[in-house]
Amino acid sequence: MVAKDQKTNHHLDPTEIGLRPGLEGVPVTQSAICDIDGVKGELRYRGYPIAELASHSSFLETTYLLIWGDLPSPQQLRDFEREVQMHRRVSFRVRDMMKCFPASGHPMDALQSSAASLGLFYSRRAIDDPQYVYDAVVRLIAKIPTMVAAFQLIRKGQDPIQPRDDLAYSANFLYMLTEREPDPLSARIFDKCLILHAEHSLNASTFSARVTASTLTDPYAVIASAVGTLAGPLHGGANEDVIKMLEDIGDPEQANSYLEKAIAKKQKIMGFGHREYKVKDPRASILQGLAEELFARFGKDEMYDVARTLEKQSERSLGKKGIYPNVDFYSGLVYRKLGIPRDLFTPVFAISRVAGWLAHWREQLGANRIFRPSQIYTGEKSRKWKQADDRLSPTSI
Fold first, then answer.
1. Cα gap 9→45, rounded to integer Å
2. Tens digits of per-residue pLDDT, 2-51?
3. Domain total in the chain
4. Residue 333 belongs to domain spanning
5. Per the residue annotation, which of 197, 301, 328, 360 is the catalytic one?
């Protein structure tokens, strides 16, 4: 049962509380989904260490864990996998709509529009109905990858590839994207990448999802709002910028010079630093290992040596400040080796993070209170109306 918004007479004066820009460090909800220890560099989903899940679980099993709170039984997992498999295809109307998108448009904009359109096809809002919630979860987990892959081919002037029922979740996405069946190692590593990006507490896009969910709108609008938030360069696009940075450096011998100049100019080093972690992001360590697995099998990416040298150099100058590689530092190198175009890095992030967004959507419904933060007003206190002829022309427009 969805808890209804309740009124309260308790009203706090924002000026007494004090301004915390970006709500940094301000608890706004309770959650049992994700736990982060930034000092120790630990990340847990529902109590399970991320390294254990990446080693032993699958993305769909982890998705089930995040959304329903416990690891599924073998039968529950088989049923969930089968339901997702059955709902991978999207309506021809959605595909026709995507064909009208400009080829020059960013894939994240295409994904946001496509995700929102699902609300038109499944417009029944019955969030008190467990079957509706389950079906919405299945549809979004199943169809988002299909939409990402479809737009990639459509903007190249090709027809989308239909999902293959004989391929598992991650292998099927790579097949739809690259038009060839992936090597088992590539599919396995991509699945691990999805696990690593599936959830990370109350980040900007997850907060956006919870705010939207608190209005009791449909889950497709919730996911569309989260996708729009993730599209911002301060949130989801950093791994694209990491690759550009590594290419700009070009040579491992230039890494220290680049670092010194950036620090002197107080420029952000892409892929370094995180609000939560004061040590190396545990996901970065795992992704580094996955990159090395791919390189051992398919050949090294020349930018990896640049990345390793930059990380070593930064430990001396940035480590004392608690600035270490985050999840974005190595993920782009992994995605590039998997044949994923650079501007699809963030949509792939979204494919994964849908699991976390839906987990927070479901949790929000369990004890809902609409988000309505306050503000500190800094404008004029009292102004008198003037007729148009009596107003002075503005000094600048």
1. 36
2. 554 444 445 666 666 677 777 777 888 999 999 999 999 999 999 999 99
3. 2
4. 238-337
5. 328
